[in-house]
Amino acid sequence: MSELSVNHLLGIKYLKEEDIQLIFETADQFKEVINRPIKKVPSLRDITIANLFFENSTRTKLSFELAEKRLSADVINFSASQSSVKKGETLIDTVNNILSMKVDMVVMRHPNPGAGVFLSKNVSASIVNAGDGAHEHPTQALLDSYSIREKLGDVAGKNIVIVGDILHSRVALSNIFALKLQGANVKVCGPKTLLPTYIESLGVGVETNLRKALEWCDVANMLRVQNERMDISYFPSTREYAQQYGVTKTLLDSLDKEIVIMHPGPINRGVEITSDVADSKQSIILNQVENGVAVRMAVIYLLASKIKK
User: Fold this and answer.
1) Count of structural domains within the chain
2) Domain limits at 144?
């Protein structure tokens, strides 16, 4: 397979397994590039990309921006908090105004699920979903799978547990789709109040006991508790959550095997994981950050090569 089967990256659920493998093989090449003294390639010199962030983001936005600049694309950054959106401009008007500047690709984060799909049907640019509400965050799931593949050699057949706030997490949903597509065994673990009722219909196991989940898994992906998405209290206190679902070094060391610890960031140190776990040799959190740039370069490059046709 030499090109993606899709013209946009709207969600993992629209991809085939071959698409994921192509993205990973391309990311392997870009990973070499970003570890060179001169980290740029002229691949996208004639492509203009607009980053539209209607929700706050530091890491994802920086990662995309860096990926675009490493590929020599022209980059426009648009932050909705300082824009006409506040004055009531619609999403389509905003984007059409940006497209009239001859933009080829739009990377968008939006609080409404399905915003990227809506956009892809109404504008001519290639759309990359950088997170839509609590729905999907495809590039995060790709970089997570890529990091597992790098650490363990393969994703297929591995036992992966996603721990924490599954209910509000776009990372969890995209990860479940990506891991299942590649043949991994997936479980979710967290308080019952933070597990969606439909979760088992996605073909994942449910485990409410953290220790049992860790004894089962090869990799634990620890999610942040998304307080900003919660309109009610889903558990008694942060302290109690940390006691039941936080991973400590003592807990890790008491397992009879060494598991891999991941986190999409930003970390609430002392809640999902303690600092000594985050900074331990079992953690691949910083690898995830580095791989994020290579994977996003791959996605942008592969989508752009379809535009150029």
Assistant:
1) 2
2) 138-285
